[in-house]
Design goal:
This protein is an alpha+beta fold and 349 residues long. The protein is 40% helix and 18% strand. The radius of gyration is 20 Å and the shape is globular.
């Protein structure tokens, strides 16, 4: 069976109906469906609807709140902190960036930390919230330890993603989103599904030997990307998203896939910068576009792409032609939705 093309609106409604059938509250449902489908639209499949089954399992196991009530405390003119009440990281992260933007409108810069949250998905979604508001954005999150420190052999950090965004005049913002590990955890799962070996130099066993079998990754750990550089960035994410926020730190963060005894205890760090406090909007766009022109002209052959440019191409295609949902994922999701009486959009098509 081939992949199905489904409109983003139908997929959001489908995901929402499934979440609602699991008694997830309306606000969380809206956020989770929005973040998952946006991720699929921009081509971040491993952060899209692929994640719905594990999120639902955590709800069913009672370790992820289906009716969380995040609470915010303003701790300084430009800063706030949020207790995520063990809610979906997608929802709590969306709220946190929304508050960071509001604070930035008042003070120029808004910083919001989050504790007692869970896996939040693609950081690019949250920085895109800031860029849609005409601001620069930064989003960080810590995660379950699976990455060693530079020179170490036992995992101490998560893949600890960081994302940065800046608005463009054409509306297709600069979007930079990366894991601080040599390979993202989702990429490891993709290698397992495809039956492919890992590249050499991305994972080690507890003796420091190379792991290339992705099925053995739990017997070892991932390396930080770029050696000491990735280690330093992972450390920064852990400090800002974990230590500063009051969230779980290192082994204090629970595994999304393996620990069904407790919530994730993830922490997030959201930053929004009101560009117009420094420059007029037109001056900012002129300066940014001049930089982009320099970058685009720097290649001797082929295209020099901006961070996020491929994402926007995918987004435009998804908006115009529908999101391509692989047959295997259709089958997996149908096995969840059919017993709930929720009709899959590919059936209706």
């Amino acid at each position: 069976m081939s992949a199905h093309r489904v409109s983003p609106a139908l997929l959001r409604r489908y995901a929402s109906d499934i979440l609602t059938a699991h008694d997830v509250d309306n606000e969380s449902t809206e956020s989770v469906a929005e973040v998952l489908v946006w991720s699929d639209m921009v081509g971040r499949r491993n952060y899209g609807l692929q994640r719905l089954p594990i999120l639902l399992r955590r709800v069913q196991e009672g370790v992820l709140s289906k009716s969380c009530r995040p609470s915010m405390e303003r701790i300084a003119p430009g800063a706030a902190r949020i207790d995520g009440d063990n809610g979906f990281g997608h929802h709590v992260g969306r709220i946190a960036m929304r508050h960071a933007i509001q604070i930035a409108r008042e003070t120029g810069v808004g910083v919001v930390t989050v504790h007692e949250s869970n896996f939040f998905g693609a950081g690019a979604f949250f920085v895109n919230q800031a860029t849609e508001a005409g601001m620069m954005g930064l989003a960080l999150s810590n995660s379950f330890p699976k990455v060693v420190a530079h020179g170490g052999v036992n995992p101490v950090f998560g893949t600890n993603p960081l994302a940065f965004g800046a608005p463009r005049r054409n509306g297709e913002s600069l979007l930079f989103d990366m894991a601080t590990s040599a390979l993202a955890g989702s990429a490891v799962r993709s290698h397992i599904s495809a039956g492919d070996q890992l590249p050499a130099g991305v994972a080690i066993d507890d003796d420091g030997g190379t792991i290339v079998d992705p099925n053995k990754i739990n017997e070892g750990a991932l390396l930080p990307f770029g050696g000491a550089k990735g280690y330093g960035l992972a450390f920064m994410v852990e400090m800002l998203a974990g230590v500063l926020s009051g969230a779980g730190v290192s082994n204090g963060v629970a595994s999304l896939y393996a620990d069904f005894t407790q919530g994730g205890h993830n922490g997030h760090f959201m930053l929004a910068i009101d560009i117009t406090r420094w420059l007029t909007q037109e001056d900012y766009f002129d300066r940014f576009e001049a930089l982009i022109a320099t970058i685009e002209a720097s290649g001797s052959e082929g295209e020099v792409l901006l961070p996020g440019e491929t994402r926007w191409r995918n987004y435009r295609d998804s908006a115009a032609n529908g999101i391509s949902v692989p047959a295997e994922l259709c089958s997996t999701l149908s096995s969840i939705s059919d017993p709930l009486g929720v009709e899959a959009p590919w059936v209706a098509a």
